[in-house]
Amino acid sequence: MGRGLVCVVAALLLSSPAAAVPVTFYFSTGSAKITATAGSTLIVDTTIALDGLFVTFDSAVPEVVDFSITAPQSPSIMMLNPYGGYDTFVIESASIDPAVGFSNFSVTPSGPNTWNFLVGPVDVMGVYSASSTGGVPPPVMNLPAPFSGSSFINCSIDTDLMAFELLGVTLAQLPGASFGEANDLIVKADLTWTGVVPEPGTAVLLASGLAGLAVRRRRAESRRTRT
After folding, report:
1. For 117-169, what is each residue's pLDDT tens digit?
2. pTM of the predicted model as reported, rounded to 2 decimal places
3. Measured distance CA(29)–CA(32) in Å, rounded
4. How far does the chain reach from its first CA to its final CA, in angstroms?
5. CA distance 93 to 167
6. Domain boundaries, the chain
7. Do the beta carbons of residue 41 and residue 32 sit within 8 Å?
8. Residue 108: count of CB within 10 angstroms of its CB
């Protein structure tokens, strides 16, 4: 099945009256633009690949009903500026999930099939590590460092391009005092996924519809041949 056809069908499903029932879509690939700052100093600015996720979306409201993100371990990231004696940075693990009381706020359409939201609260949990490649031990050796927090974040979904974004996610705020630094290390990410596979039930309906069209076409061709 062509990707364009899947996108068209998904957009139609989300814009049709039947879409009052939330529909789950599975995004296969994505990326995260990660920045880390300490005060006004930019420490990290990079983009890493992400695995897939699911998003349950109800266009009748519209609202994001559910999603789940688990980021794979990142490659070793060279810092633009050293922090606490470290010059490389690794996201060991990170997850983002709706927290108790999750809801959508300030829903704003920005196109026929595009919506922007403020969603939350979401729970963020992560573990981070760092190292020094210069052979000099950093002053603090207590990494990997865990982080957990809850916040509201910006979200957008485009059912024409089949794109889902979570913008301005705080992945970590690690205390500077633990690293001998005056400023906390704040790690943020903009997460983006594009391309989608319908939920299994939707895929079955779509396949049945395509099969029915194929049967009707063969019958019509057969009748034309006989006449």
Report:
1. 899 999 999 888 888 887 766 766 556 678 888 889 999 888 777 888 999 99
2. 0.73
3. 11
4. 33
5. 19
6. 3-199
7. no
8. 10
Q: Is 119 helix (H, G, I), strand (E, B) or coil?
A: strand
How confident is the model over 70-119, as pLDDT tens digits? 888 888 889 999 998 889 888 888 889 999 999 999 888 888 788 898 99
Q: Which helix (H) or strand (E) holds 172?
A: strand 163-174
Count of all residues that appear for the chain in the document = 227
Contact 53, 30 (CB under 8 A): yes
DSSP 115: E
- Please list, in sequence order, all residues whose beta carbon lies within 8 angstroms of the beta carbon of residue 80, skipping any fewer than 6 positions away: 42, 43, 44, 45
Q: What's the sign of the alpha-carbon dihedral 45, 43, 52, 25?
A: negative
Residue 139 CA to residue 84 CA, distance in Å, equals 7
For residue 87 the two structure tokens come to 């010059």
Q: Which helix (H) or strand (E) holds 221?
A: helix 200-226
Alpha-carbon distance of 31 to 33, in angstroms, equals: 7
Tell me whether the omega of the peptide bond preceding residue 121 falls within 30 degrees of 0, making it cis: yes
Q: Which two tokens stand for residue 183?
A: 């400023």
Residue type, 196: V
